[in-house]
Amino acid sequence: MYSKMLSLRFPKKIVDEPIAVNLVKKFDLSFNIHKAVIYPRKEGLMVLELSGHRKNFQKGVHYLKSIGVKVESIGQDIRRNEKKCLQCGACTAVCPTGALHIKRPEMEVVFDNERCSACEWCVSACPARAMEVSFNKVLLE
Amino acid sequence: MAKKTFSRTIDEINRKIKQGTVVVVTANEMTDIVKKKGAEKAAREIDVVTTGTFSPMCSSGAFINFGHTKPGIKASQVWLNDVPAYAGIAAVDIYIGATEPSEDDPLNRVHPGQFKYGGGHVIQDLVAGKKVELKATGYGTDCYPNREVRKKVTIEDLPYAVLLNPRNSYQNYNCAINLTSKTIYTYMGVLKPNGGNANYATSGQLSPLFNDPYYLTIGLGTRIFLGGAKGHVIGPGTQHNPHAPRGKNGVPLSGAGTLMVMGNLKEMDPRWVVGVSILGYGCSLAMGLGVPIPILNADMARYTGVSDEEIYTRIIDYGNDYPQGEAKSLGQVSYGELKSGLIRFNGQEIPTVPISSYIRALEIATTLKEWIEKGEFLLTHPQEMLPTVPPPERA
Asked: Is B359–A87 a contact, with Cβ atoms under 8 angstroms apart?
């Protein structure tokens, strides 16, 4: 079982087509949608966790790319500035996926970017503002 | 014949520090040692126990003298990076408070406010050696005719910069939950509705005042780790209250003792003096602070041997009760339970969220231990003790 948190950017010409469902029907994948937005200029952004057999996962991603969806791993978009992080744990109150969690018994605050859904809640909940988003907000054609 | 009980003095400890034979352990290590060997034996073996805490501590700030300008000014209003400082003291003396927001901060007008920059951030920037813009205005006098001064300063340029925190290192703190149906934004962090999370502070068994619950070794003049440098306790902090209810081990069950502390800002390290932004609440300063506890006798060994399982706090509803000034206890919970990640409350399992860093508190206790072992840090005799209550007589 392979699983990864992805951001999908839909150009406006395919934003109204049912695409995610094909991942299930054609590639035997399952998904969990964390975020889905259609912006005013009609380009779409979806953050989802895609799971299934590794081969199917690759085929599914290939399918998405072939129809013009830009696929990126979400973990690359959010990072923690380790120098700024106070290791307090306040962020764990708001993190919905457990990407930010506490490793016990050390009480170390861990950021697992593979589990991050880019909800950005931690960004303002962090007292030291250590969570940095470099989310690509450039519009797609 | 009465049983001979062991005791040692601070002078004896300092002699051992100078000789390099002192035995220092962190409060974590002491917990295990006392559990295994008992307080009497632990007292004979251990000279000093080091503690630590690293957490936002709002009642913090710095006294700064920014030096006389040419021509001179009697500053009546002063800003550092647009954060107002208190200027109602001598001509070029100011106090910058940790929670003062930047002058044009939108505050909570769009709730929850971000509070991106404030006094705590100014203090951290100074400690980090960054340039800070100073603006001062005055009404002009015969001796100080200047009406306005603007200059960029670093901590090097300041003739005097001393951190003086009126209340740090609270002995125990509430465990906060929210029993309303809406998310709230408090100084204890974000609290989700219907008891969605339980936030707590302090470093538990590592925290300074949990290890000397009756303040038998801490007072005016106690040398401590403060912001990465050596500082001092200069008295009881504001809201210091030794009369809080206590458990059998003497440890208060709610907020009790506090410390007023002081240290040279110029010697500090920005890793341990950190400006913070508390969503929907305000700006503050996270302080790193550690107190060495001299093991003068078996009682001090027993106190420093306290474990997270034996330290309790109250669960308080920050949604309904606390804002009304009626913080009533909805139940007791130990730091052992809080650190486990889940507590049980009214039959519900609630995830816990620390807002003080345990791992960095341990780093402070370990650093202080190394300073003492290397002979770089001697213990001091407190000149005036903190207000306290008598410990119960032991049979």
From this structure: yes
